Amino acid sequence: MQENHIAYISYSAGSVAFALLTVAFVYSWRIKLTHYSLIIASTITALWNLAIAANYQYVSLEREYLLMLETLRYGAWIAALLASLQHTLGQKLEAKLRYSINGLWLISLFLIIGLSAAHHPLIQDSNLLIWNSLILSIAGLVTVEQLYRNTSQQRLMKLISVAIGALFAYDIYLFSYSLIFNQIDVGLWQSRGAVNGLAALALCLGSLALTSQKSERSVLSVSRPVAFYTTSMSVAGSFLALIAVGGYYVQLYGGRWGSVVQVAILFGALFTTVILFVSSTIRSRINVWISKHFFRHKYDYRAEWLGLISSLTQSTAQDNFHERAINMVASIFKSEGGALWLESQRAYRPVQTHNMENISPEMTEELNTPFCQLMIEKEWVFSPHGTGKASMGTANSQLPPWIYDIPDLWLVLPLLTETRLLGFIALKEPKHDTSLTWEDLDLLKTVGRQVASYLDRHEAAEQLARSKQFDAFNKLTAFIMHDLKNLIAQQGLVVENAARHKENPAFVEDAIKTIDNSVGRMSNLLRKLQQQEASEVKSLELHKVLMEAAKKCQDHKPSASLRLESKDIKVVADQDLLIMVLANIIKNGQEATQNSGFVDVTLRQEGKNAIITIEDNGSGMEEDFIRHRLFKPFDTTKSGKGMGIGVYQTQEFIVDMGGNINVESTPGEGSTFTISIPANAL
After folding, report:
1. Per-residue pLDDT tens for 266-322?
2. Which CATH class is domain 301-452?
3. C-alpha neighbours within 13 Å on the C-beta side of residue 50
4. CA separation for the pair 151, 155 (Å, rounded)
5. Tell me, which fold does domain 537-678 have in CATH?
6. 586 within 8 A of 575, measured Cβ to Cβ
């Protein structure tokens, strides 16, 4: 009777505590802090405690009814926790998840009812109660862990998770212990009511204190079904259940079978430990698998993706989208700056930097180097100073030497569109976490492709705009041709009438006026558009080409001075076009320079290249103008005096020859154009 009295007091206290908790849940439900299902679960638990308490004093509770009550209690809390998770998140869980976890306790309940109705002897077996309670308590603990993990910023939900989780954990301990000894431990069973009462009382007081603190709903983080089931809590519960099963079978079979099981488990544990200790590859793969499927993601992908798309699609100045791309990538990975390389003149060249020093124009990379090929073939993200896998060290051996001249460099990210490497971004090292995980690499590659598509779209848009401008240019040419035909008709009329009226002074005077008008109109047309006939590509003496280009500019001041260090340099080119592009640069220098200034043209040879330097001490140009506007067609600073295609044509012609053009300029001090073209190439 003494033991019955203790159990009666324990479960009665638990019943009173859960009755109080029910009242607290009613209050929190009315102010919309909790879901009404918690009221139902608390009420069922109070009745469960009351029924077991009555069993020790007033009535005898049959085993099948005890099983039903146990299952209803577990089912009520599992359903309530799932409903609370949905309520707090503000969105529904996947149907198959809700049905599968709720289906577990419903199947158990229907099975018990069926066995009871059939009066099956299994219903009286204590093992059925132990196994049923153990399985449902593990399922309940998994549900608790999901509620805690996804609503941990809300103190009330956190408190509910801890309190109910403690009840499930106690049940796992109770029934695992009971399974080992094939009977329910009396002391643990009697203490169960008091444990439930203490948890309910703590939860009641805590919920009353927190009902005034409303927190915003969090965002659902369970994106895969496996994340719902395979959690740390389920692993712990399964481990305890495995121990219980092992103990049960060892006790059941005993003898040599017990020794066999013991030795097998010990050997398996040691063998697994040795494998994990020796093989870094297996450890790495297990670590990645666990990180992908068991733990919360490092990034909020929805927020990062929407932010990236929103920023990249905002309207911006045409010369600012390169900097925007760097800023977006850097901000996602908490980097302090970066630099962008894009394909230009048959190499990858730096086109934009942001808060990154020591990036010089000489830091260029040819198109088909091993460094570029590795980024194309494997979409490799380089970590120049990383010391992780052996493959990282092998890959870093392909890095160009100039990479290590960049201070605080963290990583190099490829910008791929399908199989084309548009360029790459170098990011500055973050202040805090510089480690790279599988999640960082996956997001880096995805962001790289998105940014590459964005840059490629801008490039295509620019090319389309240029095509439209050239279309307008061709229309202008058609109008000029029409005017030229009219001028030719005027001149032809003068020639036709000259034979008959050449002795007439009035005719002669009128003819002179007509010719003078035609000359003026043709000069104006030539200033707007200079027509060149294609000439034969041939070997040219470069010093003579420079002399001819300077001669074309002799009407402008200051006169160009020639410094010909070598007269033996030959190049293969279209003579007329080469003279035109060189004259254009000389003329631009003259127009930017005062009459008292200078324009120096120097010719020399470096290795297999001819180097032409055109230097002036004129007004100079800003670096931003050189980078973003100088070589763009139809962009001119000569209002009403030019079409803005001269420097663009010059660059296109030099690149087609296999050379390149470099510009250095300081505002107020002057500019230097350096042209490098292959020499003596036939």
Report:
1. 445 555 555 555 555 555 556 555 555 555 556 666 667 777 777 777 665 555 778
2. alpha beta
3. 11
4. 8
5. Heat Shock Protein 90 (3.30.565)
6. no
